[in-house]
Amino acid sequence: MKKIAIVILNWNGAAMLRKYLPSVLLYSLDEATVYVADNASTDDSLSLLRNEFPECHIIEFDRNWGFAEGYNKALAQVKEEYVMLLNSDIEVTHHWLTPLQEFLDSHPDVAAVQPKLLSVFDHDKFEYAGACGGFIDRYGYPFCRGRIFDTVERDNGQYDYPCEIMWATGAALLARANIYNILGGLDSRFFAHNEEIDLCWRMRLRGYKIFCLPESYVYHVGGGTLPKSNPMKTFLNFRNNLTMLYKCLPDKELRRVMRIRWWLDYLAAFEMLVLKRNWGDFCAVFRARRAFSRWKHDFDADRQQIQSSRTVVDLPEQRSFSLLWQYYVKGRKHFSDLP
Fold it and tell me: What is the spatial distance between Cα 243 and Cα 117, in angstroms, rounded to a whole number?
């Protein structure tokens, strides 16, 4: 049996499958078994898979489970040692899996790896959702080698070396199946957004490492499920990010960070309204704050378990500075400019 299961989660994504699945099959079948898990699509995704891509294994659901639970249910049905969570809008390249698998084979303390993500539309530019590996600042704001907020760098080889990171993008995440399962996988309550950062943070707190290996690279469309301007995306990002902090921050930091985030979140909301005149995102931040307040105690048991089982006290990939201060006040727009 092959070591890697590539699992592509699909919902009404026939156009993406038709365009990008051929590259996955062409460059992956020697090393991996390819599965498409379908979240009860109503388009022609299933007929497309059966008629044009018979080499794919189909996992068919009777309802849309969302990103997080969809992957959990799909990965429960595969038996391979390593599992690759791969978005349907990814174009892969020749031998892209080889360095990822070899690194996991030779580094038993590494739980997950990701390739370098470049833009489908400009192959010399990083892609927003993962770029060359993810980090977070002291207040939970994620950023990447190659992308800070909306500033996306060109790829000039400046990050072409293996790097230990805080989180690997869910667009192309290769993980050890046993560790994924031991930790309970992605938090299905998130539905979508921040769930891979939450999972990787839990991996790091257990002492496992996560790497980006730029020797492997893929091209990503990005924003295929929810466009960046969608208020639902804003709602999920704010609510889930706060929940992730509540679960994973140590006691000594939790109250202070949450107090400061209260001010920062409402400042962001008013910036959306006053400067961007975006009423939908403005309301989404308020709804996210309310939703977090209503459900945060549902995660008390998770928090207790995570904190009691952590083997690492401080994570160097969780940077001690404020990303907002560095970006907007200091004018540091690139990863290499940060302290």
Answer: 27
